[in-house]
Amino acid sequence: MKITDVLSKRDRGFSFEFFPPKSIEGKEDFMGVVGTLAARGPVYVSVTYGAGGSTRDRTRNALLWITEETDLAVMSHLTCIGAERAELEDLLGDYKRFGVDNILALRGDPPKDMYDFRPSGEFRYALDLVRFVREVGDFSVAVACYPEGHQESPSLQKDIEYTRMKVDAGADFAITQMFFDNRYYYDFLDRARKAGITVPIFPGIMPVTDFEKIRKFAGFCHATIPPKLEELFAPALGDPEESMKLGVHYAVSQCEDLLGNGVRYLHFYTLNKSDAVLKILDGLSPHFT
Ligand code: FAD
Question: How far is the CA of 173 from the CAs of 3, 156, 204, 226, 236, in angstroms?
Fold first, then answer.
């Protein structure tokens, strides 16, 4: 099932992102979380893919399980850095057989020790993968975008130009990097629309339930932690119960504001946990009934 077909029938909704379990033994827990969240009726679910193909088989397995056990629209994240054409063709062939009709076309991060990384080979940018996936099969294609700009982009202007190139090459929609101040999203949306990007742009929502962990993660992704978030969590550090309450409250307010300002689809980074996302969706239930 293509996500574009689901979007044409639903004018509001949300999606969930998972990472593949480390081993086959993790299947039961993983599918338990997927099943619990699937009951809320997402537009689609997606599974991440390690740069350089490091989780290729695990991602493929996780997608296969979801297609076998649910009737959800599913999307595979796919990175192209260091990938070979034949290997990607094989994987896309498997996906078509499983009923995975959607690809999030990504470049992927460079290997950790390559500080002066310069892309090379056939697949240098996500743009090359968007074109390739379009050429190889009948997939719905999404791309990543960055409200605060991608860390390697020379400027916000260039960042938008490159995003526009990915969309012009055939991306049906885009999903943002996490952000914790909606002004980044609104400014990005404004720049994107002015640049002629008309596809839906799903805001990526990261529930903050473990502040220190998310702060570290946000650092890797160059997502700003605003002072108000820092202040909110300061009294709750080391208190998981209170942190959960605050994180849910913050995410509900963030999503309420987005939905109140015309956003129709939300993308949740679940980190393979259902509790916080379920509570957030409960808080947003008037918007999705
Ligand atoms: P690109 O769009 O190729 O951009 C990479 C950089 O190159 C940017 O700085 C851009 O401005 C620049 N650029 C683009 N085109 C050109 C051009 N023509 N000329 C010069 N410069 C150019 N990573 C994973 O490994 N696995 C995942 O599953 C995964 N899922 C993600 C999901 C989402 C929603 C998001 C937002 C990110 C995800 N990432 C994932 C992270 C992503 O792989 C990294 O951010 C990566 O560094 C960039 O990928 P991209 O597809 O945005 O690259």
Answer: 9, 19, 13, 27, 37
> What is the Cα 262 distance to its own chain's centre?
20
Q: At 97, phi and psi to the nearest 5?
A: -65, -35
Regarding the beta carbon of 20 and ligand 1, being less than 6 Å apart is answered no
Residue 27, number of CB atoms within 10 A of its CB: 15
Q: Across the chain, where does the E strand assignment appear?
A: 13-18, 44-47, 74-79, 102-106, 140-145, 173-178, 201-205, 265-269
- Among 75, 106, 178, 206, which is best to mutate for testing ligand 1, by the most ligand atoms less than 8 A from CB? 106
Q: What is the pTM of this model?
A: 0.97
For 71-82, how does the pLDDT look when each residue is reduced to its tens digit (9 = 90+)? Answer: 999 999 999 998
Q: What separation in Å is there between the alpha carbon of 84 and the centre of ligand 1?
A: 18
| Close Cβ partners of 146 (under 8 Å, ≥ 6 residues apart) | 153, 159, 176, 177, 188, 222
Query: For this structure, is 242 an active site residue?
Result: no
Output the pLDDT for position 234. Answer: 95
**DSSP bridge pairs for 141:** 103
State pLDDT tens for residues 246-275. 999 999 999 999 999 999 999 999 999 999
Which of ligand 1's atoms lies nearest the C-alpha of 175? Answer: 34
Inter-residue contact 201 to 264 (CB < 8 Å): no
**Residues forming a β-bridge with 268:** 16, 205
